Each structure stands twice: as structure tokens, then as C-alpha cells.
């Protein structure tokens, strides 16, 4: 089984396509037609055209090599549809309908029948009980949700057990100006789950970070092994610290398991965990747009003391360290800005100034520092030290993060300039500190992940 036919198809069939606006078959077809490739509406009860494409009665009637089928039919009709897909040589399918393993014994039997057919014909199944996936770079919009066409391309692959969470993360990423390389809602994980998607996106040239939303899984060992084998950084949000077992199982058939065992397993296998969706995306921005940190030591440069104190406190509570800067660096900072407010770590300049970028460079070049975090409230007369930060992370081979706040329209151009030179930007001191702490934990975990044996299995 390969996921290429799912995420990089040559042609798509929408089975159960409908002319009735509001039905999944209509909305899925509306989104699918954005794809720059053949898209075929399939429905034996319809004729004429839909979005300019002629209806066909069955995927077996399509005179083309169709890689992907979007199944917009009720659960009881799905086995027959999948049988036709197999006979037509379709290699991947998305099953939107619910009423499978999450719905009791009869649903479990129905899902087992679907998997048996998929195994017979070597079909990759996303779902059942999913809202699909989106690959913005190629306008592959295999979701029935509105707004999918407005998701911008980025370098983070979102893999969520819940289709609702997958879409929420993708929309959040759009608001943050970041975008996604792909957004995937796994649903019931009939035969495509975390392991398969992690392996695929690890090899995807558009993806520099993978984020996971995990309710539970019946094969924790395979999940963790896939995370450890991934060269692409993985961050996880494991939900279920309180008792949500019955709710989760009714949602995607998830076995939530022991939360602490999951988080311990992730830590041992080199995967930082977070506790919020925005923290998940912030961690991905830090990991995906930065060199891998060599250690957990964070050098902080702030133009305002108050936010700097918040950052310092939060980093240390979340697993990072603030090392003493070398005497050479402190002397260098004193030479750049005599009488600077505070020249230890964090370095506090008191306010933005023309030499602020030189101070950041000095801290970044300190051998005691593995990660650099800069905070500067926007002052229009000063702007941001874009020229100093351009290429700095690559030159010192360390992550360089930047946090700010101000009037959006005033700082939009400078903020965009930072993004253009690859500097991750955060909107609050807390979010920036949490992202730096994830980098710190990631560095420690990567150093101790090899040879791990403790695994979260359900």
C-alpha cells in the first residue's frame, strides 16, 4: 500500500456526487474541481453535468486511470462502492460516512467488510468517519468543508484523529499567515492511520514539520516507532487527561488509554507534546523553520524588561534553561550598547535601537547558547532588525525566534519581511517562550531517544 495515489493522484472520482447543494456529494465535488487534473462525478441516478463534468454511472465506466475515489455514499452502500473501486484499479479512497466502528457492533462488522475489500485490492482508506484532507499546493481539496480553497500552502503537515480538529488547525494556520503542506483527518483509521501518514509526510519535500492530534490508538508502539524513525520533526497534542474515553470511542472509535503513558512514550521517542492547538502550530513553526538545536540553552534578548521576565520564567518552567553568557559576549554587548539595562541572560536593552540587531547577533554567536529568542515591541521609527536576522540562524546553526506586538497595520510590512527571511514570528511572549521550550525539550529528547523500550500500547 502506498499513499502516493491518495495525496498525489493523477485523477479523482467523486462517488455519490450530487446536484443538491448542501449534500456532501455536492460540496465534495465543488471542492474537488479545484484540482488541476481530471475529476469525475459518479452517480448511477444522475445524468447531465456537474461543475462542467459529465456524470458516469460507476468508476468502472471511467476511461482513465483514477487514483483516488471520494466516497460520498451512506455507510451501507460503501462496501459495494469500494468493490467497484477495486475492480477499476483505484488505489486510494476517502470514506466520509459515519456509522462504522464508532457506532457499535454492526458498524464494526461493516468496517471490517470495508477493510477486507480494501486489503483484497490494495486500496488505501482514509476514514471512515472523516471530513477528508487538503493539499493546498496542488489544490487537492478532498474535503466537503467550506473554506478549504482558502487554505494557503505552508510547510507543516497536520495529521489529526478528528477531521474537525484537522480543519481547525488548518484554519488557525491560515490566520497566523503560515499555511500547511497538508491537512489530514484520519477518522476511524480503517487501514491508514498515524504510522502510514507520518511515514508519507516524512518523505514529502513540502513538509518540514509534522503535528499530531491524538485521541488514542490501538497500536501505540507502531505510532511511536514511526515518530522515532521520522527525520522530520514531530510534535503531538495528546488529548484525554480527564476521562473522555466513551466520548472519544464514539467519535472515532479511539481507545484513549493512559494519558501519562502516552506522554511518557512520546518523550522517550523524541516527540515533544503540547496542550493546545495554537501551541501545536507554534511548535511546528519553530521546528520546521529552524536548524535543529544542539541543546536546551536559550539566549533571550528583549527590548522591554516586563515581557522578558515573562519569557524567562515561562521557558524555565517549561523545560528550557537560560545559561550564563560568556564574559566575551557580555563585554561585546557592553561595547555595542554601553550602559545597557541588563547584560546577563536575558539581555535587556530597555527599548529598540539601531544597534539592537548587533546585540542579537552577539548573543546568537555565544557558544553557551543553543536557541535564541528575541522580543521587541514594535516601534515604527526603529522597525525590526531584519537585515541582522536574515541568514543568522543558518550561519550560527541555531534556531532564532522572534516575538513582538503592536498595531497590525503598522508592523505588517516588517513582520512580513521577517517571515520572508525564514524567521518564525510569535504574537505573545508566552507563545514565543513555549515554542522555545519545545525546541529545548526536543533537543534533550533527541539526545536520549535512541534505544528506548517503554511504549504506550493499548
Topology:
Layout: H1 4-7, E1 12-15, H2 24-32, E2 39-42, E3 49-50, E4 53-54, E5 68-71, H3 78-88, E6 92-95, H4 105-121, E7 124-126, E8 132-135, E9 140-143, E10 153-160, H5 163-175, E11 180-185, H6 194-202, E12 209-214, H7 220-229, E13 234-238, H8 245-252, H9 259-268, H10 277-288, E14 298-302, H11 305-317, H12 327-336, E15 347-348, H13 356-364, E16 371-375, H14 386-389, H15 392-396, E17 400-403, H16 408-420, E18 425-426, H17 429-448
Parallel strand pairs: 1-2, 1-5, 5-6, 6-7, 10-11, 10-12, 12-13, 14-15, 14-16, 16-17, 17-18
Antiparallel strand pairs: 3-4, 8-9, 8-11
Helix pairs in contact: 3-4, 6-7, 10-17, 11-17, 12-13
Characterise the protein shown here.
With about 450 residues, this protein is of the alpha/beta class. The chain folds into 3 domains: about 130 residues, Rossmann fold (3-Layer(aba) Sandwich); about 140 residues, Succinyl-CoA synthetase domains (Rossmann fold, 3-Layer(aba) Sandwich), CATH 3.40.50.261; about 150 residues, Succinyl-CoA synthetase domains (Rossmann fold), CATH 3.40.50. It has 17 helices and 18 strands. The strands form 4 sheets. Strands 9-8-11-10-12-13 form a 6-stranded mixed β-sheet, sandwiched between helices. Helix 5 links the parallel strand 10 and strand 11. It starts with a helix and ends in a 10-residue tail after the last helix. The C terminus is likely disordered.
Amino acid at each position: 500500500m502506498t499513499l502516493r495515489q491518495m495525496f498525489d493522484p493523477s485523477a479523482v472520482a467523486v462517488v455519490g456526487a450530487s446536484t443538491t447543494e448542501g449534500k456532501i456529494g455536492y460540496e465534495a465535488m465543488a471542492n474537488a474541481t479545484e484540482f488541476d487534473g481530471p475529476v469525475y462525478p459518479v452517480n448511477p441516478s444522475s445524468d447531465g453535468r456537474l461543475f462542467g463534468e459529465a456524470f458516469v454511472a460507476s468508476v468502472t465506466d471511467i476511461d482513465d486511470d483514477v487514483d483516488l475515489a471520494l466516497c460520498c455514499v451512506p455507510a451501507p452502500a460503501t462496501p459495494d462502492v469500494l468493490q467497484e473501486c477495486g475492480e477499476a484499479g483505484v488505489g486510494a479512497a476517502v470514506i466520509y460516512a459515519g456509522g462504522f466502528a464508532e457506532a457499535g457492533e454492526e458498524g464494526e462488522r461493516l468496517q471490517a467488510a470495508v477493510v477486507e475489500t480494501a486489503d483484497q485490492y490494495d486500496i488505501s482508506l482514509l476514514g471512515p468517519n472523516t471530513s477528508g484532507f487538503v493539499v493546498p499546493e496542488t489544490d487537492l481539496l478532498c474535503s466537503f468543508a467550506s473554506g478549504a480553497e482558502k487554505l494557503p500552502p505552508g510547510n507543516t503537515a497536520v495529521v489529526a484523529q478528528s477531521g474537525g480538529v484537522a480543519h481547525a488547525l488548518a484554519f488557525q494556520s491560515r490566520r497566523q499567515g503560515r499555511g500547511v503542506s497538508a491537512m489530514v483527518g484520519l477518522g476511524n483509521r480503517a487501514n491508514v492511520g498515524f504510522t502510514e501518514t507520518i511515514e508519507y509526510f516524512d518523505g514529502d519535500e513540502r513538509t518540514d514539520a509534522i503535528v499530531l492530534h491524538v485521541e488514542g490508538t490501538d497500536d501505540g508502539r507502531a505510532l511511536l516507532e514511526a515518530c522515532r524513525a521520522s527525520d522530520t520533526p514531530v510534535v503531538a497534542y495528546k488529548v484525554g487527561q480527564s476521562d473522555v474515553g466513551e466520548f472519544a470511542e464514539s467519535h472515532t472509535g479511539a481507545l484513549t488509554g493512559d494519558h501519562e503513558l502516552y506522554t511518557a512514550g512520546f518523550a522517550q521517542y523524541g516527540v515533544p507534546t503540547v496542550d493546545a492547538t495554537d501551541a501545536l502550530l507554534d511548535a511546528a513553526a519553530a521546528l520546521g523553520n529552524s536548524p535543529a538545536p544542539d541543546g536546551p540553552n536559550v539566549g533571550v534578548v528583549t527590548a522591554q524588561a516586563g515581557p522578558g521576565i515573562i519569557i524567562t520564567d515561562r521557558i524555565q518552567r517549561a523545560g528550557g534553561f537560560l545559561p550564563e553568557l560568556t564574559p566575551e559576549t557580555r563585554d561585546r554587548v557592553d561595547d555595542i550598547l554601553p550602559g545597557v539595562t541588563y547584560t546577563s541572560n536575558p539581555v535587556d536593552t530597555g527599548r529598540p535601537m539601531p544597534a539592537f540587531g548587533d546585540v542579537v547577533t552577539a548573543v546568537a554567536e555565544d557558544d553557551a547558547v543553543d536557541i535564541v529568542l528575541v522580543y521587541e515591541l514594535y516601534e515604527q521609527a526603529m522597525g525590526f532588525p531584519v537585515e541582522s536576522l536574515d541568514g543568522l540562524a543558518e550561519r550560527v546553526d541555531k534556531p532564532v525566534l522572534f516575538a513582538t506586538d503592536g498595531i497590525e497595520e503598522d508592523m505588517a510590512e516588517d513582520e512580513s519581511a521577517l517571515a520572508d527571511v525564514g524567521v518564525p514570528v510569535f504574537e505573545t511572549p508566552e507563545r514565543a517562550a513555549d515554542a522555545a521550550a519545545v525546541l529545548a525539550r526536543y533537543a534533550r529528547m533527541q539526545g536520549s531517544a535512541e534505544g528506548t523500550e517503554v511504549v504506550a500500547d493499548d
